[in-house]
Design brief:
By secondary structure, the protein is of the alpha+beta class. The chain has one domain. The longest helix is centred in the first third of the chain and has 10 residues. The chain starts with a helix and ends in a 26-residue tail after the last strand.
Length: 83
């Protein structure tokens, strides 16, 4: 299995039925100035109560810090699950 295969798994499981708009404001990776160091995909579950967020660090050997802002979304509780 290739590293790319594992990246596809991150995006495929779990995922909701409605794609939401995402934006990243990060620097580029050292090996490609056109590739952002983080990629993000957000979806909403079919019941409308769950948001799934996949964030992938594209920087090969660097940790990337970030903040996540959920606009127009009011959480029902304080529970967050990170996988």
């Amino acid at each position: 299995m290739t590293p790319l295969y594992f990246t596809y798994l991150l995006y495929a499981n779990p995922i909701g039925s409605e794609v939401l708009k995402t934006e990243t404001n990060v620097s580029s990776v050292a090996f490609n100035p056109q590739l952002p160091s983080l990629d993000a995909v957000a979806t909403r579950g079919p019941e409308g109560h769950t948001v799934y967020l996949a964030v992938v660090n594209s920087a090969q050997n660097e940790a990337v810090s970030t903040e996540i802002h959920l606009n127009n979304w009011q959480p029902a509780g304080t529970q967050v699950q990170a996988v």
